[in-house]
Write the structure tokens for this entry.
Amino acid sequence: MDGLSHREVMEGVFHIGDGRGNFCTLLAGTTGAILYDTMMGLGDLRSYVAGLTGFVPMVINSHCHFDHVGGNRQFDRVYMSEADLPLMDVGLSELPILEETQRMDFSYMVPNFADKSRVRPLSPGTVIDLGGLTAEVIALPGHTPGSLGLLIPERSLLLAGDAISPQACLFFPESSLEDYKKTLEMLKGVPFDHFLLAHFDYLFPKAKLDRFAQCLDLIGKKRSQEYVFYPIPTLGGRLFVLDLADPDTGELVGIFVKNADAGRPPAKKRG
Ligand SMILES: [Zn+2]
């Protein structure tokens, strides 16, 4: 339906994809459900989720980027970190650029960023009981200031959105390399065995965090390459590559940082 598909990666944990490299996760307990992210909002995500669980889910955004909040308009209420609320205005202002680069009509995206009445702030430390499954909200700043993860102790699982990644994206103006370092360090002490991310369809073992941390050691010490974020070409920075192909997944492992964090002057404006 609508290009949407899912895989139940663990009991009650449905990783839903839109066929365009974006994923959200539905947690379904015996008394309630959480939908973590709404991807780009393509297709009828609300009906799709209703078909998987009998509950109207509590919708939580991992962070306020367009490929995570796109389906918010399909739900009456959504929760995100207060620290990411300013990104709603940024997202709205970037829609014309995205329309051009993605060659898509993004008018449907306007309410996601413009209608603040459906958004409620969610604080780290909040614990949500779904019956047999609990989700604890934890702060994972770095990619954005208000990135939120969900820890599910019954599955020894962390949902992390874009907050950590084999291709960590820290070139956004709202990103903080220092916060990302602290988040990776903090996660060492958090009890979980696996994590799910918003642009990968498989479970990562916690041990992969060590590889992500190794990327930090490359910054300023190894050659990097210029990177332009093609959806919004005014954004970009430098890419440091740890491994062109991870032996387990074949994925590139590296880190994208701002020019200033790479010890470089800002890129010259072209044309
Ligand atoms: Zn993001």
Remarks:
- Helices lie at 45-52, 66-69, 87-102, 110-114, 177-188, 208-218.
- The first strand starts at residue 5 and ends at 10.
